[in-house]
Specification:
By secondary structure, the protein is α+β, with helices and mostly antiparallel strands. It has 3 domains: about 140 residues, Arc Repressor Mutant, subunit A; about 80 residues, SH3 type barrels (Roll), CATH 2.30.30; about 80 residues, Alpha-Beta Plaits, CATH 3.30.70. The protein is about 35% helix and about 25% strand. It contains 10 helices and 11 strands. The strands form 3 sheets. Strands 6-5-4-3-7 form a 5-stranded antiparallel beta sheet, covered by helices on one side. It has a 4-stranded antiparallel beta sheet with strand order 9-10-8-11. A two-stranded antiparallel ribbon has the order 1-2. Helix 1 packs across helix 3 and helix 2 packs across helix 3. The longest helix has 20 residues. It is extended. It starts with a helix and ends with a helix.
Amino acid sequence: MPRNQEVIRQWKVLHVLESSRHGAAIGALADTLGVTTRTIRRDLAALQEAGFPLYDEHDEDGRVRWQLDGHVLGGIEAGFTLAELCALYISRNMLESVAGSPFQRDLTNAFGRLEKMLTPRMRQFLDRLPTVLTAKPGPRARGGTSSSAVVDRLLEATLHFRVATMRYDSVSSRRVKDYLVHPHRLALVDGGLYLLAYVPEYEAIRTFAVDRIASVSLEKQTFAPPKPPNGEDAFANSLGVNTGPAVRVEIAFDSPVAPYVRARVWHSSQEITDIGNGGLMLTMNVCHDWALRSWILGWGPYAKVVMPATLAREVRADLEAALSRYHRS
């Protein structure tokens, strides 16, 4: 049997034992995991060798049951079970999306404390699991991290409704500008940290990339708590980071890509209908922004915008502009 399958099966043995209030017999473990009792005995021996607190005892009927003592580790009293601690430990590779963010130091410190709750042999065993359970981080802002001082001030302004002045290097206007803002929320999206803030000058909510904020200073005045409540999804209408109004969008996909489109939930509002010849129609209520257009363009010749007409014209213009670049070359 491949080594990776063995590690995953042993992880399942741990989970079964911890979820069993009175332990489990070897025969029951073998039946649950679909292996022989001899294999389970080897797994139990391997887990004990790795340092996991397994022990066997006889029940009232004289049968041998194996149990996992989750209370021998420090920190369990805080509310974590042994399996939960282990799961957190191996999830480090799934938290790469915040690597390089201002929270990276705190995240590193948290995992450092977590490691101290596990014995070296346990960590050695668990370090084998990420080889079969990996996560590829999404794109992140290039060129280092957001300033901790900037993020700290933005958090303070958001929590205490403080008016703030910030210097921002805008991509759209291609200039550095000072803004007076009412910070409403910080959001981590696709590895990037964004600020949603009301801008009195524009009388509108705007989105700012925190990595492009050069400095922030807090003013003495405060602002009224924002509406809607902070718990709502700020980018609910967008496939990216946009706060525009939602419109009905219909996109026809040809058969070569239809299975891939059907296999995912691209937006909570989506509806899929068959259109014959293996194709499908995807309908979503989303805002008309660059995130939507770039997503459509990514499907190449297999996607066609049916409605709205304005979106279809813009996608066609993008395709024609791209084609003209190749003609010139």
